[in-house]
Write a structure and sequence with these properties.
- By secondary structure, the chain is an alpha/beta fold.
- 39% of the residues lie in helices and 16% in strands.
- A hairpin with a 2-residue loop joins strand 4 and strand 5.
- Helix 1 runs parallel beside helix 10, helix 4 runs parallel beside helix 6 and helix 9 packs across helix 10.
Length: 285
């Protein structure tokens, strides 16, 4: 077994939740696991407990709350009572208190909150803060796919999360990158308190990866593969200390863990962000 590396989290979005994946992750030194109450058709917690309950104590387990089963499928809610109950249910279904619970995509409900946005966000964060104090989880955070709508709502009344999770990588737009940076500054978060997600843009088979060579972002680590370069670059776009990546294949996870030896040229990433910003200004409104 390799030495544990906390900078990589195995994400279970779209995963089959197979035991061999979890044992493979442990063999690679990946000891952090991220899921959500709505993954696997709202069965992720129960399936994990049933198929790998004996392995879960060997992981740092994070999950997310905010989506609930509804008549037409999944529905989103920031109701503090429902959120608190969801954290409690997560602990029961997993058979252990989660190490970290994220408020999942709060922007989904904030669109409808209008002028009450800051109040709604404050109450939702307070619910997770209370759940943490009550021992239902060790810590709480915010996971946001589109963080732009959160930027104007952060103020002294909004509790500070211990962790922020945002999209990271070469396919993230400059508005999302800038919004993530704004939240990091507003909450005075250290890079070690920020996670990136979807570093490969959702698929290693995306045509874009055949058209560009992301190894241009590497310093003296040109021996890495293209996918390894994409992965390690995600730690710098925006600056994050941990990246959650999804896969069902331990071999693929091993390739990405191997990318951690690489070094990214910071000047190149800054030039890339400048190019993204210039291109954004040229886009029609």
């Amino acid at each position: 077994m390799r030495r544990a590396d906390p900078r990589v989290v195995l994400g279970l979005h779209r995963s089959r939740h197979e035991r061999r994946l979890l044992t493979g992750a442990l063999d690679l030194g990946v000891t952090a696991l991220d899921t959500s109450s709505n993954y696997l058709g709202f069965r992720s917690h129960q399936v994990l407990a049933r198929t790998a309950g004996d392995l879960l104590p060997r992981f740092t387990v994070s999950t997310k709350v905010g989506y609930f089963p509804g008549p037409g499928g999944a529905e989103h809610s920031l109701d503090p009572v429902r959120l608190h109950a969801a954290v409690e249910q997560a602990a029961g279904d997993l058979g252990q208190e989660p190490d970290l619970v994220f408020l999942h995509n709060p922007e989904h409900s904030l669109r409808e909150a209008g002028s009450r946005g800051q109040e709604v966000l404050t109450e939702a964060c307070a619910a997770l803060d209370d759940a943490t104090r009550n021992g239902l989880c060790a810590a709480w955070g915010i996971a946001s796919w589109n963080p732009s709508s959160l930027v104007g709502l952060i103020g002294p009344a909004v509790p500070r999360p211990t962790t922020l999770m945002v999209r990271a990588g070469l396919l993230v737009g400059v508005r999302t990158l800038d919004a993530a940076d704004a939240l990091i500054r507003a909450w005075d978060l250290d890079p070690s308190e920020v996670w990136g997600m979807s570093p490969l843009g959702g698929s290693t088979s995306d045509p874009v990866w055949a058209k560009i060579d992301p190894r241009v972002f590497l310093g003296d680590s040109r021996q890495l593969s293209r996918m390894q370069a994409v992965f390690i670059a995600a730690y710098h776009l925006p600056r994050v200390g941990t990246v959650a990546v999804g896969t069902d294949e331990p071999a693929h996870l091993g390739e990405l863990v191997g990318a951690l030896v690489g070094e990214v040229d910071e000047r190149t990433t800054q030039e890339y962000r400048s190019l993204l910003r210039d291109r954004s200004r040229d886009q029609p409104v």
